[in-house]
Amino acid sequence: MPSAQSASVSFAVAVGSRDEVDGHHGSTHFLEHLLFKGTKSRSALDIAVAFDSVGGASNASTGKEHTSYYARVQDKAIPVAVQVIADMLTSSVIDPVEFENERTVILEELAMNDDDPQDVAHEEFFEAVLGAHPLGRPIGGTPDTIKAVSRDAVWQHYQKNYRPQDLVVTAAGGVDHNELLQLVTENLELAGWDLNLTATPRAWRNQGAVSLDVAPTVKVINRPIAQANIVLGSQGLVAGDDRRYAMAILNTVLGGGMSSRLFQEIREKRGLAYSVYSFNQGYSDAAAFGLYAGCSPQKAPEVIRLMLAELEKVAADGITEAELDLAKGNISGGLALKFESTQARMSRLGGAELTDGEFIDLDESLARYSAVNLSDVQALASLMSSSAKSFIAVGDVKESLFDEFV
């Protein structure tokens, strides 16, 4: 990005919550926290000061299939970002005192998440749809697993999974490729990493969808709160599925924005909910497709009927040419806006390598969206509509709420 005077840099490791040893769930997220707590040559304060002194912003995120450490800095501070993040990834010490302190921090984080009924509903939905598959587990683990996990177990997880062949480094903005390559190489080799290995981030993950024999689930978590948080749906399309472009259009038309069918029917016309949307969360070999709404418990039955009815309408009648054009324009414009952001470009580059083992440029992506036709969208809607569904609700409702739908 020639005009940019800043850059976003990411070091992403192909290890996520799905890769954890049974009984140690949450270790990957725990480790992400701990890598900011000091290395052989830097204290936690040193790491913070390194970024603060150049006006940079650093952070990290743990996903189900990879963990990313990233920073946004002024272009001349790129060496600082590379040096510090490389040091964190290769030379963490996981101090026992810091480990115990961070355990309490993560327990507070889990408690905070548990206080968010929408978050709880989505976590329960993924577990219901994906069953025993590792992708169905919560990224942060549970209070029980975090209380039980030892420093040695997390250290072993670190030593086993943070390795050069599973690392993807991406950057966007005011950055020169060759200079970045030299910086990364120097800093990783200085730490003793062998960079002559062939890069195979978790064997390129994308092996296609696995067959999951999971019975539909109905679950209500009763809480004395003002809204019922409802998620319903089934298994969806994995990240590498060729139909993902049609799925993006289906989601845009069905529940992707203010002009979507769910938003118009449930919020605008009837005032039954504030938040309502559809989604497909696809990973390398499993995925979930769902509809969400938050509404008063009394309105929940009507909202569920409308959600299912809108999906069934698209399955039976398809979408209109005007809706197809709107969705394509929405996606095209959204991608163009994202390409103005160094962080969005950085993330897109890394995600492509980690998930698909290839990068699809903007023009090719737009061409694939453009090629989607009405029958493609209707076929997907029919598949999602006819699939056996799980129903999750968190709020002041009874399990009998779903009796008429299962």
UniProtKB/TrEMBL annotation:
SUPFAM superfamilies, sorted: LuxS/MPP-like metallohydrolase (SSF63411)
Gene Ontology biological process terms from the UniProt entry: proteolysis
Domain Peptidase M16 C-terminal: 149-328
A GO MF term: metalloendopeptidase activity
Residue span, Peptidase M16 N-terminal domain: 2-142
Pfam families linked: Peptidase_M16 (PF00675), Peptidase_M16_C (PF05193)
InterPro entries in the record: Metalloenz_LuxS/M16, MPP/UQCRC_Complex, Pept_M16_N, Pept_M16_Zn_BS, Peptidase_M16_C
Family: Belongs to the peptidase M16 family.
Name recorded for this polypeptide: Unannotated protein
Source organism (scientific name): freshwater metagenome
